[in-house]
Each structure stands twice: as C-alpha cells, then as structure tokens.
Amino acid sequence: MKYFAMISGTLYVFVLLCGLETGNAGKVLVLPGEYSHWHNMRVIIDALVDRNHSVTVLVSSASPTVPHTRKERFDFIVYKVDTKKEDVNALLRQMILGFWMNETSTKYEGNFVLWRVIADFVAFLTDISNGMFHEDLLHTLRESHYDVLLSDPMLPFADLMAQKLKIPHVLSLRAMFAFVLERLCGQMPAPPSYVPMVAIRDLTDRMSFAERVINMLDYIIHTTLYP
C-alpha cells in the first residue's frame, strides 16, 4: 500500500510538471519579412520553438527568401498570389538599385522610374492583400485560435490581420526611432513614460523622472521631424 501511494504521488507530480510546461506554451502566428528581415525573424522563431511554443509562419507563394518548402521545426501556411518570385526579386531590386542608388539619371528619368516602381509595388501589395485576406484562409486561421501575431514591420497588413483574428500584435523590430511609423500608422501603444524611445540610451521601463522627461522630449522631436 505504501509502495502504491509512493508511485501515485510520483505520477501526480509528473502530471503537474507536464501541465506547467504546456501551460506556458502558446500558438504564435508569424508574418515574416524578406531577406535580412527573415534572418532576424528566424532567430526569434527558433527561440520560441525552443520554449515549446507552436509557431506557424504565414507566407506568400511569391516569397523570394522564406523557404516554405523546406521541412522545419515549425509549420508553414502558404497563400497563393499571382506574382512570381522572380517578379518580386526584380521589383525589390528595382526599388533599391534602379531608383535609390541611381545617381546618373536626370530629374525626369528619376521621376518616371519612381512612378513606375510605385505602380508596380501597389499592384504587388494588392495581390498580397487578396491572397492574405481570402475568406477560406481567414476561416482556417480563426479556427486555429492563435494567441498572438508576430510580424516584421517590412510586411504590410499585419495590424489588419491581427484585428481580423482578434489577437495581440507584436512587432519583431522597430522601423523608426520613437516608434513614429508604428504609432501614427499602426496605432501601436507606446507610452513615453514606460517605453524608451531608442536603444542608444540606457533606459528601461522603470525610468526616473528626469529620464522620463528626456524620453518624452525624444518622442516630441522625432514625431515633429516625421514628414
């Protein structure tokens, strides 16, 4: 009888420990960026998987850098778009090399390239939007009951996806100082009394009064400078 009680107690403790382990895990939906942004996101995903979180990466079929056909420790959901990988690569190369780094073109040539790139990029975003917010895909995502959406600020529509799924939205990195773009465009809450403006200052969410004043001034300056 004593031996049976000892075995039962051991099993009970084991069940409790298993419950604690699974209780801390969650379901994370990831919207990654491309190129170096994907490599940055991959480090975060690996850390989440190491902590027993269930991770699903939502990616388009035209993604040039996210290897969604490869077997990973996490899952992929691939939504179809009409754009091809080669076209996405060409578009991004055109944005960087054809416009921003082209110093030999005239003013009129530069304006023409700019408008052409904008038109192509808008068409690409429309294609992404149609694939990402297809009713069948949204139904599948809602039925999966994710706990949080983790996204890269390079990818558009992440805040809208979080709103449709009614889950919290977390950004993997900051796009601008003082979170100007995230606050003004994405409505991200960032109270200056608790969220440091930039990492070059050794500030945390527990700032002194003087540090809060400095942080507030940083927010005001960068928000004013934002065009």
From TrEMBL:
InterPro entries: UDP-glycosyltransferase, UDP_glucos_trans
Position of the signal peptide: 1-25
Pfam families, alphabetized: UDPGT (PF00201)
GO MF term list: glycosyltransferase activity
Organism in which the protein naturally occurs: Cirrhinus mrigala
Protein's name according to its UniProt entry: UDP-glucuronosyltransferase
Keyword Glycosyltransferase: yes
Similarity remark: Belongs to the UDP-glycosyltransferase family.
Keywords: Glycosyltransferase, Signal, Transferase
